Amino acid sequence: MMSRILAYTSPAIGHLFPMTPLLLELTRRGHQVHVRTLADQVELLRGLGLAAEPIDERIAAIQHRDFGAKNTLEALSASVEVFVERAGLDSDDLAAAISSVRPDAVIVDFNSWGARAAAQAWGGPWAAFCPYTPPISSRGAPPFGPGLAPLTGPLGRLRDSLLRPLIMGQLEKRYLPGINAILTTNGVPAVTTTDGFFRSAPLTLVATSEPFEYPHPGWAPDLRMIGALPWEPPQEVPAWVEEPGDPFVLVTTSSEYQADEALARAAVQGLAGEPYRVVITMPAGVADLGRLPANVRVERFVQHGPILARAAVAVTHGGMGATQKALSAGVPCVVVPFGRDQLEVAARVKHANAGVRVPKRKLSPERLREAVRRAATMADGACRIASGYRRAGGTAAAAEAIEALPDQKPQPEAA
């Protein structure tokens, strides 16, 4: 039985918060859990009983630049650039943490590419944790990136076979050299495909499940879908949340800046006077949205759970965490994707009939208002997804999978 577990996250609360309930479950089972994460989240985690320390501050200083991208390939390339740039730092950072903590097992954030290589080089039991759909090939599913719906039959197979090399193949050409430099620096064999890199972990826990996620028959046994893991820091519920009144519409923007203020502005104008109490959260920084209508309020951060319990619709930027949090509560979504994996999230919401997708280029107050009205009729789809998440097993299933990792011996440290 493992006793000391080291978890390492990328500099994003959208990755830390979904991992947190798993870490708390491991603690509840008697494991001693150490975490390396964002400096401003360390005290929070310590208050939860976890042994937390900050990651190298230089990693968080390398920020995403994809919000100015003109197309899917350009946006994916910008994200990959950031992961490669951070990797030279997070590999050494995790290696130092391993040397200090001397863990029995390691959990690595899927986006910490250098830390992945360091965990592999360490040689002990380790797993990756992915809070979004990973960009891994799958029979019957469209290539990751542009947000295509599945297409069955010969036509679907032809479409996917033609598009996959155009998307992932182009990324591999550009970035496999950088990925392989990370691997060889850590004494790990180079790879020939991104799939080879992303499936290098003995176990990858993916925080989603069907029917939100498409079927992936070729992912087992190393990739395991465990359902959504919605979690928020403990916080007193504001009195205004519990006051009687119209149902809420929760509008969320990204926790990592990506110029999505347009979504908040469209909500202010489009939902003014609608029979809802509109709450807009802007964790990356509150923008000037002008004079607010009587039924609209803006917060930098407030717990979403109590609002969703009283909500008719959630309007999201397509972030996996915010969207799945709403669906877990049986709340249908309007998704306006701005980049990253958000096109894929929006496609899944639409495919599951759990909400409405609005392309960013078509966003307007009028379109958003109509989308909210349509989404309000789709609670059945959201409830089906919530049931699927529960069936996937959640934190209990994830913790059992971590505990069942092969008992490998770490490679000896170089003299």
The gyration radius over C-alpha positions equals: 21 Å
Silhouette: globular
- Count of DSSP H/I helices: 15
Biggest beta sheet summary: 7 strands, parallel
Poorly predicted tracts of residues: none
Order of helices and strands: EHEHEHHEHEHHEEHEHEEHEHEHEHHH
State the domain count: 2
Helical proportion? 40-55%
For the record, what is the CATH homologous superfamily label of the largest domain? Glycogen Phosphorylase B
Main sheet strand line-up: 3-2-1-4-5-6-7
Number of strands: 13
CATH uppermost class of the largest domain? Alpha Beta
CATH topology of the largest domain: Rossmann fold
Q: What is the structural class? A: alpha/beta
Based on the structure given, which CATH architecture of the largest domain is correct? Answer: 3-Layer(aba) Sandwich
The CA-CA distance between the termini, in Å, is: 29 Å
In short:
By secondary structure, the protein is an alpha/beta fold. The chain has helices at 13-28, 42-47, 57-60, 72-101, 113-122, 153-185, 194-198, 239-242, 261-270, 304-308, 320-328, 342-351, 365-375, 379-391, 394-403, and strands at residues 4-8, 32-37, 51-54, 105-109, 126-130, 204-206, 223-225, 248-252, 277-281, 296-299, 311-316, 333-335, 355-357.
Folded structure, characterized:
This protein has 415 residues and is of the alpha/beta class. The chain has two domains: 4-227 and 392-403, 3-Layer(aba) Sandwich (Rossmann fold); 239-391, 3-Layer(aba) Sandwich (Rossmann fold), CATH 3.40.50. It has 15 helices and 13 strands. Helix 4 packs across helix 6 and helix 9 (261-270) crosses helix 13. The two termini are 29 Å apart.
